[in-house]
Write a structure and sequence with these properties.
The protein is α+β, with helices and mostly antiparallel strands. Helix content is about 40%, strand content about 15%. It is built from seven helices and five strands. α2 crosses α5. The two termini are about 30 Å apart.
């Protein structure tokens, strides 16, 4: 089997694009469709597709941001205006955001945990797909991923959860690498 130097380079240098470096343009509809198809090519025991996508373009992101700002103010009438402003802009930090939704649930053969892991793999694959198409991406959750009011606003069913919000745009510069784990400290070998 021969090595793929391009893929090896990508996997050894992959880095999320910080929001400060994220700008337009974002992917057009056809490119995003290609990226989502790539994202869906993950391990999926039982072929359940225990995840789905909710695409949030900039215009929808502005509406969702206004909703978030309203939640912050209703939860705390004395909320810091800077926090309200940050939440209002949370879904416009990149040209497009994809909510990866976990549909994991009880199954006669497939553990729910495996289904959740599959949704996480979709998030990472979407980052890879963004880079493959010349874009950058950033996978976050933040408080909106865990707030039922936001889930309802996004149209999630009661059993569904946000696995991640993947923001996609064009990097304005290459992000500096961050400190990575010491592989010797996190790797052991089972000796039987």
């Amino acid at each position: 089997m021969s090595a793929s130097p391009v893929l090896i380079d990508h996997l050894t240098t992959r880095r999320s694009t910080p929001f400060a470096l994220m700008q337009g343009p974002g992917p057009d509809a056809a490119t995003l469709a290609s990226m989502l198809a790539m994202a869906a090519r993950v391990p999926d025991h039982g072929k359940l597709a225990p995840w789905r996508f909710v695409v949030i373009d900039r215009q929808a992101g502005e509406k969702l941001g206004a909703f978030l700002a309203g939640l912050v103010k209703s939860d705390d009438a004395a909320a810091d205006p800077k926090k309200v402003e940050i939440d209002a802009a949370r879904f416009t930090r990149a040209p497009v955001c994809v909510a990866v939704v976990s549909r994991a649930g009880p199954h006669v053969k497939i553990p729910e945990w495996e289904q959740v892991l599959s949704a996480g793999a979709v998030c990472l694959n979407l980052l890879h797909a963004a880079i493959a198409h010349g874009f950058g991406g950033n996978w976050v959750t933040e408080w909106p991923a865990y707030d039922r009011r936001v889930a309802d606003r996004l149209g999630l069913d009661a059993h569904e959860k946000v696995a991640g919000f993947v923001h996609i745009g064009t990097p304005s510069a290459r992000a500096e690498d961050r400190v990575r784990p010491d592989m010797a400290a996190i790797t052991t070998r089972f000796e039987g």
